Amino acid sequence: xxxxxxxxxxxxxxxxxxxxxxxxxxxxxxxxxxxxxxxxxxxxxxxxxxxxx
Amino acid sequence: xxxxxxxxxxxxxxxxxxxxxxxxxxxxxxxxxxxxxxxxxxxxxxxxxxxxxxxxxxxxxxxxxxxxxxxxxxxxxxxxxxxxxxxxxxxxxxxxxxxxxxxxxxxxxxxxxxxxxxxxxxxxxxxxxxxxxxxxxxxxxxxxxxxxxxxxxxxxxxxxxxxxxxxxxxxxxxxxxxxxxxxxxxxxxxxxxxxxxxxxxxxxxxxxxxxxxxxxxxxxxxxxxxxxxxxxxxxxxxxxxxxxxxxxxxxxxxxxxxxxxxxxxxxxxxxxxxxxxxxxxxxxxxxxxxxxxxxxxxxxxxxxxxxxxxxxxxxxxxxxxxxxxxxxxxxxxxxxxxxxxxxxxxxxxxxxxxxxxxxxxxxxxxxxxxxxxxxxxxxxxx
Lengths: 53, 382
Fold this sequence. Notes:
The complex is a heterodimer. By secondary structure, chain A is mostly helical.
């Protein structure tokens, strides 16, 4: 394989695959955020617990 | 008796004889070591790296030094940690433990900046091929554009160890020069209006479970598609998993402090040991530094241009300056975006978003290296 073919192949496949993998990661992060949403504490939970005797 | 005394004295002066007869490269490298000390101590430029690297360079260039010969201390460190690739991987555990991926998880689309920030790798690779470097050497030189020292060392030590000194010093030098290199390019490519785009910080949306599962899914995704990069991604995500698990604070602390500090010292010394003037001072080294500079400029430009595109697509909700933070130089690149944005609008706080892009750059650089290694393997070149 000559250098030009190698360079162009590496550039096209390299950039394409990097974007592809990061695209998958974006998708997976969104799935995780949907599956495990942040549950904010309710007003009752926010109240400080009274200390024991 | 007199003869043996004279022979003994000759032995004591052989270092000076070497210096005066063939020691010019040593003198130049000793001056370079002095410059590294100056930058680290007087200017505060990457002292944790430049002092060990500079001292390794200093030791190896003292005439007739045998620290990099078989049995020498620097050769021992090199064989133990760089030839085996253990040091850069251990550094990655520490980086993973230190990194907060929270801002990235809050706004995952900015992970794309981490891909744009790798364009320079591929341009540098093409230029290196044009300059006559071999295919594998060109890949190692291109990796400088990742702005990621451990990744550059990992790849170069494995496939082009004769270029290790130049590639690693170039990578770390340009990482430290990010605050000088990036702002002119960012200013040139953005309008005054774009630099003033405000980005708000919404309510937190990321749960602890998402943070915990993130390193696992990133390792799985990268490992399946580009398994050659698994050691790199696996180690950075191990560090982050230790941190996010919340139950191994001693291991997290050790990763980001003791292990990272000790390995940084050994790694720096061993890299400095590869900077023997008789091998280092070549046109090849100058070309590597030049190509690395081009790579980082292109990374910055690509990130800002993608930022401009995302600014348009989002209806003006993304400040293009944060695109420049999509490189691996953490957290310098994020700080540069914050400082430049703040300069044009004192009420604009881009830091959290830029940090997200910056951590995306860390992931992007490892993914790009993993992809390149897997492609090389697919082509049967490694």
